[in-house]
Amino acid sequence: MSRHGDREPRVVVGFHAVLGRLRAEPASVIEIYLDEARADARARDLVGLAERAGVRLLRVPTRRLDGFTGGGRHQGVVARVSLRPLAADLDALLDGLEGPPLLLVLDGVTDPHNLGACLRVANAAGAHAVIAPRDRASGITPVVSKVASGAAEETPYLMVTNLARTLDALKARDIWVVGADAAGTQDLHSAELPTPLAWVLGAEGEGMRRLTRERCDLLLRIPMQGAVDSLNVSVAAGIVLYESRRRRDLPGA
Questions:
Q1: Helix (H) / strand (E) containing 164
Q2: What is the distance between the alpha carbons of residues 148 and 145, in angstroms, rounded to a whole number?
């Protein structure tokens, strides 16, 4: 169960992500590229913070920033950062946990905006890792990193060759595999949630693949009170992860 990605520098884009990394861990920021046309207060704050942290900052044309993001939105700032040494693989991560695991498994989430949002909510809810199949998932791109607002560098994202086999391995460790699915036989709020736990979500529209669904110990549905019959995958991830976190934090849990 290996971790996808190498130790090469990663690009972080946007003022929120770059300023957040610069404040939290300036030593990990290799250099910053700032649009030479930006002279507003936000740009001046960034320049001052970089100077105080001793981080090299270059003023460059917009077209050079566009080259980092393939023309995507960067707000006029891009930073090259070194990656933290996260867990080398899923087995090592699980072996190192002190409490029961809380994992998020994504089957078929290929949109980088959705992946970035899932990483962000997983980090906020205290999930220990996000797992995805290598052949049906987005990698960590500048767009993912920007949407994740730092979570892509904080939360292990493990891309596995065979998701069904990985779920079997989790179950062998006595980790319950629970799918969030509109066809679930039980309601999220009334069902008992075991710990340790791996939540499995499919892409909006397609849902989980058959082999993934068959690996689930439980299929639970999120209550829907309005006219819509489905939720964006990152919204659904937030609901189920925070429900798990809420129950774990109850007195006597």
A1: helix 163-172
A2: 5
Q: Rounded to whole angstroms, what are the CA distances from 175 to 101, 134, 192, 211, 246? A: 8, 21, 15, 18, 19
Token digits of residue 58 = 């270059």
User: Residue 4's pLDDT band (boundaries 50, 70, 90)?
Assistant: very low
Check if the beta carbon of residue 233 is closer than 8 Å to that of residue 203: yes
SS3 149: coil
Could you tell me the domains of the chain? 10-81 (3.30.1330.30), 90-248 (3.40.1280.10)
SS3 for 191-237, per residue?
CCCCCCEEEEEEECCCECCHHHHHHCCEEEECCCCCCCCCCCHHHHH
- Considering the entire predicted model, what is its pTM? 0.73
Rg (CA), the chain: 20
To which H or E segment does residue 81 belong?
strand 77-81
Express each pLDDT in 69-100 by its tens digit. Answer: 665 678 899 999 886 555 558 888 899 898 99
Q: Which two tokens stand for residue 208?
A: 């989980």
- Cβ–Cβ under 8 Å, residues 32 and 13: no
Structure letter (DSSP) for residue 59: E
> Is cis: bond before 196, omega within 30 of 0?
yes
